[in-house]
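We emphasize that the prediction below concerns an isolated chain of 235 residues; any contacts that depend on oligomerization or on bound cofactors are therefore not represented. The input was used exactly as deposited, without trimming of termini.
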Amino acid sequence: PSIACALLFLTGAAEAQVLPWPGGPGVEIGAVGAPGKLPAGMDPSGATWHPGLQRLVVVGDAGIVATIDADGNAVQSWFPGGDLEGVARGPDGTSLVYLAREHPPAILEFDLAAGQLTGSTWNLQTWFTGPTNQRLEAIARVGDLYYTGDQFTGTIRAFALGSAGAVTLVNSFPSPVGRNDLSALDWCDETGVLYAVYEDFDVVVEMTASGTYLRQYVLPGDDQEGLALVPCCAT
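Result of the prediction step, given as a token string:
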């Protein structure tokens, strides 16, 4: 995973123009299997920055949850299991995060302080019906809602999560640029921008919370499966 502050550049173009990446290629901070780094066998697939803990939370599709500091050190890891593809921060002032499990599709509540699942689970099988390896692939907290990414269709769905596993679909919209293979989501409170990564196309698309297209950038590298803005840019 890479840590970066996204730079926003306004353009007057109405079409879905792909802009150059507004920064450098980044610096590796989370080597897998190296001493003091991420656990061996971990295939990182999702990330989020936890502002309260000042740590990057990373999940892997081998069922691993890990936290690291901004330099990639002080690694802690746990193994709740499951095909974990995304992670979002929980309510402010808590050590909770929400894990996106691809199959069967569900959101799982995990307590970083306790290092374990809390037992709260929200079943999303009704909405994610593609191939078992292309279902729930991304998650981001937007206000009190949790936005999810459907890898197979590129659809973004916003859910309200209630008690006892209650789930309400609040909004749903397709990729504003007609792409599928959605692999990561993140949200910036300061700018009101939702970011979506489309892995096969090596792009990150910026949009509003309702799915209105803003702009898109070419991403450095390939096989991008996680996105964390640290911190959000205010401009």
